[in-house]
Design goal:
The complex is a heterodimer of chains A (about 350) and B (about 450). Chain A is α/β, with parallel strands linked by helices. Chain A has 14 helices and eight strands. Classes of the chains: A alpha/beta (about 350), B alpha/beta (about 450).
Chain lengths: ~350, ~450
Amino acid sequence: MSAQHSAAPSAPRLHIVTGKGGTGKTTVAAALALALADEGKRTLLVEVEGRGGIAQLFETEALPYEERKIAVAPGGGDVHALAIDPELALLDYLDMFYKLGRAGRALKKLGAIDFATTIAPGLRDVLLTGKACEAVRRKGASGGRAYDAVVMDAPPTGRITRFLNVNDEVAGLARFGPIYNQAQAVMRVLKSAETAVHLVTLLEEMPVQETVDGVAELRAAGLPVGAVVVNMLRPAVLDEAAVRIAASTQRRGQRAAVAKALSQAGLGGARRGGLAERLVDPLLEQAREHAERVALERRERAEIEELGLPTYELELLGDGIEVGGLYRLANSLREQGISGTQREGGR
Amino acid sequence: MSWQTPSLDIDPLLDDRTTRIIVCCGSGGVGKTTTAAALGLRAAERGRTVVVLTIDPARRLAQSMGLTELDNTPRRVAGIDESAGGQLHAMMLDMKRTFDDIVVQHADPERAQAILENPFYQSLSAGFAGTQEYMAMEKLGQLRARDEWDLIIVDTPPSRSALDFLDAPKRLGSFLDGRFIKLLMAPAKAGGRAGMKFLNVGLSMMTGALDKVVGAHLLRDVQTFVAAMDTMFGGFRKRADATYRLLQAPGTAFLVVAAPERDALREASYFVERLAAESMPLAGLVLNRVHVSGAARLTAERALAAAEALEDLAAEWPGAGDPAPSAASDTEVGDPVDCPAVENLTDDRIADRDTGKAEGKTFTDEVSLTEPDGLPAESLAAGLLRLHAERMQVVARESRTRDRFASVHPDVAVAEVAALPGDVHDLEGLRAVGERLAKGQPAAA
């Protein structure tokens, strides 16, 4: 269907942000929602794992199970947020599709909702993805799209493919009937050009390895991979050549010259045992560690490049993330052109 | 320093024969698995017979312990110093196998077959969120029951919330007591064989609604599943309760693992409170990846001021027109005649394709790159000082975050582990982490 639409493929509207634990995927998802809300657009930021991370980021009270505006983007766009509660989502869903107001409550009393959302966790994931897809497709009052883009702070990379594919699984279980139809509809959105799964990583071995594995899994499952976001990039304090030289400064003469320079800068005596002289070894040790890290980052960056995906980089914000920092990250994503990102093969 | 919480002594904990279970928990990406493996290795080399239960180890870490396949049984790890009489075993959890084993063990063959073939069971056991936690608890109970190891170290699943691990047995219990299960089982029981006779009158409205929602045959699959599982539920529940009590018992020690970052410590804080509320024995906090400096006496401010002074000097250096090597100067650095290293000086953000080669020669070629007067000592010293200033800023930031935690939980003992430049993926690395853990205070490098 979408193939006939127009020559230029449209940018994705459902952005699913995943990443290894600790890589800051919630932060990146929030920054992305802000970045996409430029020029008066409306975005919805969806949280599915009930950790309250979004509310903390935007420094507001815990989000209720309803869509509410949490930020205004520069240029007048709005970011709305929703923390999906699987239980309420199920009741919602029952209401929407089956007008099961009372029976729904009866189900809840009996523990059926518990059952569906806890013990049959597949159903829980169906509800979460289903809700996000519903928001993508929803029409606003004026007949246009309710949201220009929906950004989901999704489960971590290790679980993302199963999470997104759960509808396939459930469709297989249900085989026909309303759940089957719902699951199929959700899968159609997830596998379409409307969706892009972005992976957040750090320039460290394990997160990059997990990203590479995650991309392979997503591709194998036919899910649309979007971009890689390298997060928490540390500033390049010493350029690489200087690092190498520093790291190999074993010669007495060089060490003495450094000690002398330190002393010149007023950091104590350069003689053996002097304050400046005693600084040389620990400073060089730090440079060696830095050199090792620079080499490692280079390797990891090359590995990310192998994936052939659009890549965005976000700097490390020193003192943790506060609202101001979030806007800076959003701005950085925008400058790097993320709003034009196509899904794989869409370019 | 301002931070004066008790320190967590790892070795006494590992050496204490009454310590039978150590649970490592914490949010994702803080080094739980590495910590668990390092503790296991250290305990084994100190004479304990240890099994480490890992949930989802990074591939290379798993390989370092000889875990090339996920076969759900503990394997003895080679390359351990067993002179103290200890051994290290390690295993990776295979959820589906664990679940299947329970079914096979606790149901007669015909019924077991029916369960294993039920599509609903297959999807449940393949590991949606939640199953992993149940199965980790189950496996822990099994390992403990075998009594072949005198210390079990458990890594917890990378859950959406680290607390799921604790909740799993309770949730299972309350679910099994739920009316819904009884309701689902009622028709099967009344009708003898599952799904044969349908529903008595009182339930028809309910199941009618359910049918409408989930489709009648799916409901039948669920009913068959639940009915078949019925016989096992008692055992399930008993074991879940037993494991839960095991976690509260004196032989168990919880270690909350975190990194000195705001989010990780917030989660750690939450966990500490939760463990207390559940009367789970907390041994302390392991704080991984703490940065230190061997020149901590030199503050960031002084280092920066000195760097600026030196850069001014370097600018006056005859012939050395290069800007100082700092992040601030993104301009073309260097003049190849003065500085032979400069040809490799592409901005490292634009990683070129043949980085493999470049990286390969970093350490072999560096000596030849280091001409004595390659870079004026002033520029070099300034660069070192800027690097130091950045390090000191990180140190200060981490200690602020840590202090915040300490002021809320002054009684929680803490062991700090100095940051390593790279990841750990061999026994040597695990040994080094173990040593750092035991030291408890990150010694300056």
